[in-house]
Amino acid sequence: MSTHASYKGPADCPAVIPVFPLSGALLLPRGQMPLNIFEPRYLAMVDDAMRTDRIIGMIQPDPESPGAAANPKLYRVGCAGRVTQYAETGDGRYLISLTGISRFRVESEIASVGPYRRCHVSYDAFAVDFEPRAGEEHVDREGVLKALRDFVESNDLKVDWAGIDEAPDEALVNALCMMSPFGVREKQAMLEAPDLKTRAEILIAVTQMELVRGSGPESPMQ
């Protein structure tokens, strides 16, 4: 199922989309995000998305402007994704996968009597998101891999190094950012990075800071 057949630029994307506020969830263009949907309002959101263009916007609540628990204030930038996998479970949940299309900026939130939130959004600032592998030639791949190796060794993790070696730079950087265990602000900084090179630099810097914090004064990273 092609995600980009109908979405070749900002003008092709819907201006009003449902949004799913979720702290720590980072979706990036062409990235894959699995979701386990069980809350009634988000089940309704998926139902409506499947009846229309299958688009859902992932966005993080802003921890510096918390707002009401049931209706938290949101960051201004999120990422729209299309439902590319969908399954129902026997206990009423949906297991879906979103494939990232483009980042968006929230222009306004739409007052709605429905159970979930919708926003009027603009993709104009993120035209680069529609260009697969844009900026790969500027990525410090060795720096990314070194940060990953150090993090893996420090945390005694196992990774598929063969798969990593085969991954193009865009897929590698975006997948590592999406899977990273870092906080809301760090994830938002990765999302809002102006280009792939900057996103990779943020990933390296955040990983190094985490290693320093976890290693103490004898850390070789210092």
From TrEMBL:
The family database entries (Pfam families) matched by this protein are listed as: LON_substr_bdg
- An MF annotation (GO) of this entry: peptidase activity
- Any transmembrane segments, and where? none
Q: Which organism is it from?
A: Methylobacterium tardum
Keyword terms, alphabetized: Hydrolase, Protease
Q: Which InterPro entries match?
A: Lon_prtase_N, Lon_prtase_N_sf, PUA-like_sf
* Annotated Lon N-terminal domain residues: 17-211
Q: Name one GO biological process term.
A: proteolysis
The protein, known as:
ATP-dependent protease
Q: Which domain of life is it from?
A: Bacteria
